[in-house]
Amino acid sequence: MARMSLQDKLAILSDAAKYDASCASSGGERRDSRKGGLGSSGGSGICHAYTPDGRCISLLKILMTNFCIFDCAYCINRVSSNVERARFSVEEVVTLVLEFYRRNYIEGLFLSSGIIRSPDQTMGDMVRIARCLREEHGFKGYIHLKTIPDASPDLIRAAGRHADRLSINVELPRDASVRKLAPEKRPETIRSAMAQVRLEGEAARDRTHTGRPAPAFAPAGQSTQMIIGADGADDVTILQSATRLYSGYKLRRVYYSAFSPIPDASSVLPLIQPPLLREHRLYQADWLLRFYGFSADEIAAGATAGHLDLEIDPKLAWALRHRGLFPLDVNRAPREMLLRVPGFGTRTVDRIIAARRLRSLRYDDLARTGAMMKKARPFISLPGWSPGGLTDSAGLRARFAAPPEQLRLL
Amino acid sequence: MSFAVALPRRGIFDAWRAAARVAISHRIPPEKIDWTGAGGLFEASPLPQAPGPHQARVPQGFVGLAGSVIWHSAPERLALLYQALWRIDRDEGDPLSHLDPLGRRLNLMAKAVGRDIHKMHAFLRFRELPSEGRRRFAAWFEPEHDTLEPGSRFFARRFADMDWLIATPRLTARFENGRLTFHPGGTRPDLPEDASEALWATYFANIFNPARIKLDAMRSEMPRKYWKNLPETRLIPEMLKDAESRVERMRQAGASAPRPGAAAISTRYRAAMPQAEALPATLDEARAAALQCRRCRLCETATQTVWGEGLSGAALMIVGEQPGDREDLEGRPFVGPAGRLLRQAMAAAGIDPAQVWLTNAVKHFKFAPRGKRRLHQNPHRQEILHCRWWLGLELAFIRPRVVLALGASAAFALTGDDAPLGPRRGRLETGLHGGPVLISWHPSHILRLRENAAQARAREEMAGDIAAAWRKAG
């Protein structure tokens, strides 16, 4: 076999990495290179480019290798796949990261890997790459390391020393699906690893008994990914699972990735059209869980047979089923109720609350808060506007759900 | 009398601030100042040199807002900012608020500037220049507003170990040996080819998933106006043209035959994975099997099985209800707040936890997520019964002389009797395993007692029960 060029390897190992949705580079600790080294991080992340699939490129997202001894049915790199294989050396990854970084293509590295020989061997090699970037090259940019399932706690600790973020994928929303489709993975050890990352992160934020700060551990926290549509789990099951992940392991993000067809597919999984709209609705619901005070059960109340309404967003679906709570008096309603008005975002609500301390708001003022008035109108009342019978009208859902129809000339 | 103010292009924020300070100190109304510096048809004079008698105070928020708006390309921004200052000074409404028409306009301008700076940080691309010594890079960028000056600090912090130059139509930033300087702008420089661009293009084309096209999402975040200076965007038409046929080929190909040799690897790995013995013969085997327990549905929501710990031949076994939040995360029994209370009581009685066996009636944490927390829920009767299998194995292998049952769930699991705990507390009963079971309060029950006197009494009772059980076991 001819020796592969760096370009060949990059093609294979980025193609192999694209099914991981996360590319976030936000929330790390503040660092910069004014006292040596290269790079900076902290604050909100930067997306350096977008591909036509609508996903951002913030990090160089690659696999260390796509050789893998696991046989996960949904994965292009599973051991039984006939895909072309490659492996980067430590130096190759380091060179790519630094040269891309210097040209302002990326914020840093997101390194994942197929599992070679053993989980510990793989995790150890990945930690070596991160350590080389940090210690030998003074790299201050962002590093996201994928935690290999069943890697030893010591290696996870070492990974957290160098990485801004760690992630381990729960892969599927139900344990039974993981056991069936990813027989080498064990849901309980995946969860234990997430628990460890949470505890190590908390311990690192505490000061030691001498008062010195403890060594940093993944300052940008952890995230995970669930594949949507590869098993029969409904949206409510998915959101309940996400709620447990957020409350148990303090995840920064749960990513939902619509299962998409892969070349060289397994016979266990159908080659379906990726359910992109469903993925979108799940992200909206996820936002409601994290920033709008909704619980999974409340979102479930707006769902039908366990699934979110695909035609309207989950907040609107909830509001339509709880019309008795509306219209809301914008000048008096508490913050937690304002957050439930369709068309009001968190910033809109902040602005309303700040402004109404000084004076009573009128309808004309609202548009300047950034509210989506068309959506909010049936659910609010304030001087200058009353929805009258609109809130309870039978055709309200249709006003939002009806897709704009193109009229044709005869 | 009217005034005309001409401000320099560079350092414009400080210059505007100084001019505005003088103007407001003389109480010059906004309509009397032409900030474009032209003066118009009427005779206009420059602002007075010396400050006037009036001292204006502005909120910090105004300085921040002005510090962004000033870089906006609209010429009227200077006049709008002075109008806002004027109104703040005269206490006329809140011109910083989004709900005020002027405030809304200024905030939108600040947002546009912030976005322009952010997009420069995102979409600027350096090319390497030949050099000896420090590496040198250069870039051409066309911002929408005058954002190179406020935006270049970011590059100075990020790329401190190299020299770089950013040219824009209006301004050029140069960073050499750690010093940032500004020079007039110009036209697009001719930058040499950079070999890394081909690698970058390879990455861009391969990280793209042809099965999910979302062009609107791409265009809204990476507007077309930036494309001409982004080398990778040249690939987009080709990638799109190809996408449909690639997906179609995947569909046509369907499932493939497994790679030869793969089955052997899978078989070997799976054989080495931990197996659960159906009938464990030792305490260690029982533990290994319990780690994979799926006898009820609690295993799906909890993190892990929390097995007992301590001395495998202990004379005293202490059984609680179930692991709590902390125990679930750490995988060890009695390490949360209730566990601390128990361990304190044991220490007071002179009992080393390593000399007893600490465990729970139910081995998985049962909870309900509420916002960011997990609230403990009592296990159902069925869950306790399912988990008694494991408690029975612990009893069988450890063979304690006495068992201390903390709380109703443990008492029920050990004796099969679910009668109320109050009258039973402090008494010895015979367990289903045939040995003596002393019944006491669960420490988390004690922690929940609101009244100080009641809590103190319950603490004493539990401490007394622990000591009594230890004596009986010894």
Description:
- The complex is a heterodimer of chains A (410) and B (474).
- Chain A folds into two domains: 6-213, TIM Barrel (Alpha-Beta Barrel), CATH 3.20.20.70; 314-401, no CATH class.
- Chain A has a six-stranded parallel beta sheet with strand order 3-4-5-6-7-8. In chain A, strands 1-2 form a two-stranded antiparallel ribbon. A two-stranded parallel sheet of chain A has the order 9-10.
- Chain A is globular and about 75 Å long.
- Chain A is α/β, with parallel strands linked by helices and 410 residues long.
- In chain A, helix 2 packs across helix 3 (119-136) and helix 3 packs parallel to helix 4.
- In chain A, 54% of the residues are buried.
- Chain A has 15 helices and ten strands.
- In chain B, a hairpin with a 2-residue loop joins strand 12 and strand 13 (373-376).
- Chain B contains 17 helices and 16 strands.
- In chain B, helix 2 crosses helix 4 (101-123), helix 3 crosses helix 4 (101-123) and helix 14 crosses helix 15 (407-415).
- Chain B folds into four domains: 2-118, no CATH class; 124-184, no CATH class; 196-248, no CATH class; 283-473, Uracil-DNA Glycosylase, subunit E (3-Layer(aba) Sandwich), CATH 3.40.470.10.
- A six-stranded mixed beta sheet of chain B has the order 9-11-10-14-16-15, sandwiched between helices. A five-stranded mixed beta sheet of chain B has the order 4-5-6-7-8, covered by helices on one side.
- Classes of the chains: A alpha/beta (410), B alpha/beta (474).
- Chains A and B meet through helix 1, strand 1, strand 2, helix 2 and helix 6 of A and helix 4, helix 5, helix 6, helix 7 and helix 8 of B.
